């Protein structure tokens, strides 16, 4: 067999890339310039193999068919999206949450739960970190109540997040008091796995959500929104579209947390800076 010819059949041609990248940018908001062609080709190879397809021409034809739109689009989203996350990632944010935000919201307590949203939760580390901090604050301040919603576009990572199962070394950033109280070790030591205890998992509601959808599905307004390391994948217009939508879902003076490389400088959106990459709704 001529393996070089087999490999060429699986190359992503320019016209196929343009069609795929246009769909991804329009429907997911993720920038897909020509420089990302090799990355997209590499990630989609596993889908061709899984589906038993010979080349990207067959894949594109299937993807945009009626069956493909129903069955393959979710799988394509799972391999295209980036899911980098950690417990207590960007720890200064959680210091600010603990020392400034929770005391402020508790002081303004109106009898309703504090509403928190992890807008791109990936495999769950961020919302579970929010649950750890909020639970500890509630222990110290009777009457403090909260609800946490966590969303992501990828159904695969949401399944992992709901399970709450992680490799043991993923817990390294977590204070030992939290590990002892809220995590269970696997009964099989060889697996090196831990699981979030049911009482903490129950504090987070996971939902599938495309942030580019015209309308958000929430009835309640949020006090705190973590939307970190998301906007870096969007162009300026889609960033503004997302921020305006988030603003409409937040209570006045609510807190928005962005990723370390994201900024609202120069954008006409209803937020004001209160700390590095932390903003308040105005």
TrEMBL record:
The keyword Magnesium does not apply. Residues 5-282 form the CheR-type methyltransferase domain. Keywords: Methyltransferase, S-adenosyl-L-methionine, Transferase. It holds the Pfam family CheR. Its EC number is 2.1.1.80. It catalyses: L-glutamyl-[protein] + S-adenosyl-L-methionine = [protein]-L-glutamate 5-O-methyl ester + S-adenosyl-L-homocysteine. The keyword S-adenosyl-L-methionine applies. GO terms for molecular function: protein-glutamate O-methyltransferase activity. InterPro entries: Bact_Chemotaxis_MeTrfase, Chemotaxis_MeTrfase_CheR, CheR_C, CheR_MeTrfase, CheR_N, CheR_N_sf, SAM-dependent_MTases_sf. GO terms for biological process: methylation. PANTHER family: CHEMOTAXIS PROTEIN METHYLTRANSFERASE (PTHR24422). This is protein-glutamate O-methyltransferase. It comes from Sediminispirochaeta smaragdinae (strain DSM 11293 / JCM 15392 / SEBR 4228). The lineage of its organism: Bacteria, Pseudomonadati, Spirochaetota, Spirochaetia, Spirochaetales.
